């Protein structure tokens, strides 16, 4: 097989809990290590996985059963040389995706992003604020509207997609 399945490594079975299961952070970490170590993609079966924040290791290829079928309900911090596809990512109160400092050469494909609505300055997709990133590609992705409430004092803090850049950088 060309992929490692989350349940093979961790024992998490699709449908184990009725609506939403809390994903043990250690289970995802173990599965990600196995996938990167064996140079195989990590497949996450259909279901809703409640994750507060996952830090993806560089080189990880992460694939779900489809953006309408597999929902990582939390924030993903991504690094370099990753392919992330066929997932719904994020939830109310946080950014869906955020880059690690120096992240580069990462592709999001056929993903749906949901987020915002937390404290001020919570974007759905947030790139470049805590560190530079380059060559980040989004293909056939959707961004749901920010779940926050815009007001005159924080208008820019409720954007759907925000890219921070140095004054010498081009966006």
Description:
The chain has 2 helices and 15 strands. The protein is mainly beta and about 170 residues long. The strands form 2 sheets. Strands 2, 4, 6, 8, 9, 11, 12, 14 and 15 form a 9-stranded parallel sheet that branches. A 6-stranded parallel sheet has the order 1-3-5-7-10-13. The chain is globular.
What keywords describe this structure?
globular; single chain; 9-stranded parallel β-sheet; 6-stranded parallel β-sheet; mainly beta; 171 residues
SSE diagram, text form:
Elements: E1 3-5, H1 6-10, E2 21-22, H2 25-37, E3 41-44, E4 47-55, E5 61-64, E6 70-78, E7 83-85, E8 88-89, E9 97-99, E10 103-109, E11 112-113, E12 125-127, E13 133-139, E14 142-143, E15 161-163
Parallel strand pairs: 1-3, 2-4, 3-5, 4-6, 5-7, 6-8, 6-9, 7-10, 8-11, 9-12, 10-13, 11-14, 12-15
């Amino acid at each position: 097989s060309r992929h490692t399945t989350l349940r093979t490594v961790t024992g998490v079975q699709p449908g184990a809990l009725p609506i939403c299961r809390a994903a043990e952070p250690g289970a995802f970490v173990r599965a990600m290590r196995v996938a990167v170590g064996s140079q195989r993609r990590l497949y996450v079966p259909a279901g809703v996985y409640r994750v507060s924040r996952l830090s993806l290791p560089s080189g990880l290829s992460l694939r779900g059963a489809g953006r309408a079928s597999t929902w990582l309900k939390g924030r993903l911090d991504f690094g370099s040389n990753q392919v992330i596809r066929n997932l719904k990512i994020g939830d109310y109160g946080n950014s869906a995706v955020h880059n690690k400092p120096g992240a580069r050469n990462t592709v999001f494909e056929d993903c749906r992003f949901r987020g915002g609505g937390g404290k001020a300055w919570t974007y759905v997709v947030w790139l470049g604020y805590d560190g530079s990133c380059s060559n980040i590609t989004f293909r056939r992705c959707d961004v749901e509207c920010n779940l926050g409430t815009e007001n005159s004092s924080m208008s820019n803090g409720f954007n759907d997609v925000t890219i921070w850049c140095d004054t010498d950088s081009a966006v």
